[in-house]
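Researcher: We plan to redesign the surface later, but first we want a full-length starting point. Tokens attached.
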């Protein structure tokens, strides 16, 4: 028997929330709502939702920024998102999809079409390959569920931030990230961090996972740019 799917509607217009929730509940979905970005993010981080319906023009954290935060968090990066907004220009749709939305609908909209799109996105999402909890790269083994790392079979102690940085880079082998991109992805809402913070954490990571930190095998420095997890590692 298929489990009940939970949808979070992030929308500041109460009438629209009511309309969307009514049509989704009629189709057997459980629906929750949030009228602004910060409270939505707190709810998302509970991990109880199967799909987000996201307005772009929200009080507080805007929809695009919220989408970016969700996509950059390893715990929520796979959460399906349908953007629903009055910003219906082609460039808005392109930006939304490039930001990581799975679908994009303009307002006004047909509730029946929205429900059909929710079902289609959930169907596609369920067909995605399951991410293995263990990530093995060379002598490195990362357990995403237990938040543990071992090298050559021996556990190493990482801080929560070092673990997130390692997972973020290891899951994107071969892709170069600037220090500012890494700050956005890992430190996100934290104030008082600067690009040098990334260097400090990379140095600590190398000390734990590399045989020779001076000649790293995994996390490589791209001079003048940032860092990359070597795709040949």
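Model: Full-length starting sequence:
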């Amino acid at each position: 028997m298929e489990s009940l799917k939970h949808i979070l509607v992030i929308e500041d217009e109460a009438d629209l929330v009511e309309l969307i929730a009514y049509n989704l509940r009629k189709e057997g979905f459980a629906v929750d709502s949030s009228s602004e970005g910060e409270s939505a993010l707190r709810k998302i981080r509970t991990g109880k939702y199967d799909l987000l319906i996201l307005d772009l023009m929200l009080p507080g954290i805007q929809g695009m920024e919220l989408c970016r935060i969700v996509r950059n968090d390893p715990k929520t990066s796979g959460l399906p998102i349908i953007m629903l907004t009055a910003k219906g220009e082609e460039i808005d749709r392109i930006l939304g999809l490039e930001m990581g939305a799975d679908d994009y609908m303009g307002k006004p909209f047909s509730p029946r079409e929205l429900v059909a799109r929710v079902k289609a996105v959930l169907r596609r999402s369920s067909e995605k390959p399951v991410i293995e909890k263990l990530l093995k790269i060379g002598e490195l083994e990362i357990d995403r569920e237990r938040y543990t790392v071992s090298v050559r079979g021996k556990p190493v102690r990482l801080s929560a931030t070092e673990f997130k940085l390692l997972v973020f880079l290891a899951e994107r082998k071969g892709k170069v990230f600037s220090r500012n991109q890494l700050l956005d992805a890992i430190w996100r809402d934290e104030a008082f961090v600067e690009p040098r913070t990334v260097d400090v954490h990379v140095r600590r990571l190398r000390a734990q996972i590399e045989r020779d930190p001076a000649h790293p095998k995994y996390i490589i420095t791209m001079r003048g740019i940032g860092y990359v997890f070597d795709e040949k590692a």
